[in-house]
């Protein structure tokens, strides 16, 4: 409590410390009022326990009635002092309790939202380092997928198009789409020859035959991309931990040569280090499985 008291402004701290020492005045008040309340013969017996020199000096200074009056007044002051101190301490402790409880609730809230914070962090990271740098448009999207128990979870995404940038609520199988090629070979660079706007049936058939998508998945896709560029991200043990996918709804939307030159091994290692450092703060299918989910 001393630390909390020291945080108070000086004009509040010193009065609080003064009244907080009301324990001894409170004890004195109880003893003094108790003495005043006992029968006179017992009072006299108690007084006779004092040395005769003290009693002589006291009666020469004040008479007995004056001493009783002084004793009563000081006892009353002690009772008030002790009462105020007790009330201030109780009020202060309640205030500390409420503050600690509120801070605890805030920490719980913050802890429960760590996955969302990580998603926002990675989304900002890929925007600042790649999307803005390469002047990509609302026709393009950049997504970072983390591998977890043979499934890919989107942990960061950005597009100028609000529809394309929405956080997905599903997991991506490792053996479907361009993610599979990236996972196997380390890279994908591909352009679909059909436009989904004008040749949707041909675009859909191409995706089914070449990327293993299901018909219903393609029908419900929000972003029907034509161009893809993906990079595999490995840790220091050469284990695949994530993939980074550039995609565009336009056949010429991605400048492959420019992107390939910029996305060096060092750049991919930076993403790997960031993923590993924040791994404990991200949702894990393996952890959920161990807990029975």
TrEMBL record:
<protein>
    <submittedName>
        <fullName>Uncharacterized protein</fullName>
    </submittedName>
</protein>
<keyword id="KW-0472">Membrane</keyword>
<feature type="coiled-coil region">
    <location>
        <begin position="90"/>
        <end position="117"/>
    </location>
</feature>
<keyword id="KW-0812">Transmembrane</keyword>
<keyword id="KW-1133">Transmembrane helix</keyword>
<feature type="transmembrane region" description="Helical">
    <location>
        <begin position="67"/>
        <end position="89"/>
    </location>
</feature>
<feature type="transmembrane region" description="Helical">
    <location>
        <begin position="21"/>
        <end position="38"/>
    </location>
</feature>
<keyword id="KW-0175">Coiled coil</keyword>
């Amino acid at each position: 409590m001393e630390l909390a008291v020291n945080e108070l402004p000086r004009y509040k701290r010193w009065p609080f410390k003064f009244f907080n020492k009301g324990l001894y005045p409170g004890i004195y008040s109880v003893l003094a009022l108790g003495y005043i309340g006992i029968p006179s013969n017992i009072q006299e017996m108690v007084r006779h326990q004092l040395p005769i020199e003290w009693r002589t000096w006291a009666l020469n200074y004040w008479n007995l009635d004056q001493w009783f009056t002084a004793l009563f007044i000081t006892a009353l002051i002690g009772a008030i002092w002790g009462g105020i101190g007790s009330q201030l301490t109780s009020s202060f402790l309640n205030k500390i309790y409420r503050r600690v409880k509120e801070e605890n609730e805030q920490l719980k809230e913050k802890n429960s939202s760590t996955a969302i914070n990580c998603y926002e962090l990675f989304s900002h990271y890929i925007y600042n380092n790649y999307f803005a740098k390469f002047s990509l448009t609302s026709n393009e999207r950049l997504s970072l997928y983390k591998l977890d128990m043979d499934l890919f979870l989107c942990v960061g995404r950005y597009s100028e198009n609000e529809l394309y940038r929405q956080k997905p609520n599903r997991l991506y199988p490792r053996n479907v789409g361009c993610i599979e090629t990236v996972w196997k070979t380390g890279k994908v660079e591909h352009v679909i020859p059909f436009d989904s706007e004008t040749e949707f049936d041909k675009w859909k058939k191409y995706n089914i035959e070449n990327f293993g998508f299901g018909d219903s998945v393609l029908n419900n896709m929000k972003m029907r991309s034509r161009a893809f560029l993906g990079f595999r991200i490995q840790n220091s043990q050469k284990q695949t931990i994530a993939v980074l996918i550039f995609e565009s709804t336009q056949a010429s939307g991605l400048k492959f040569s420019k992107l390939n030159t910029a996305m060096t091994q060092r750049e991919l290692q930076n993403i790997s280090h960031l993923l590993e450092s924040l791994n404990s703060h991200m949702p894990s299918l393996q952890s959920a499985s161990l807990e029975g989910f």
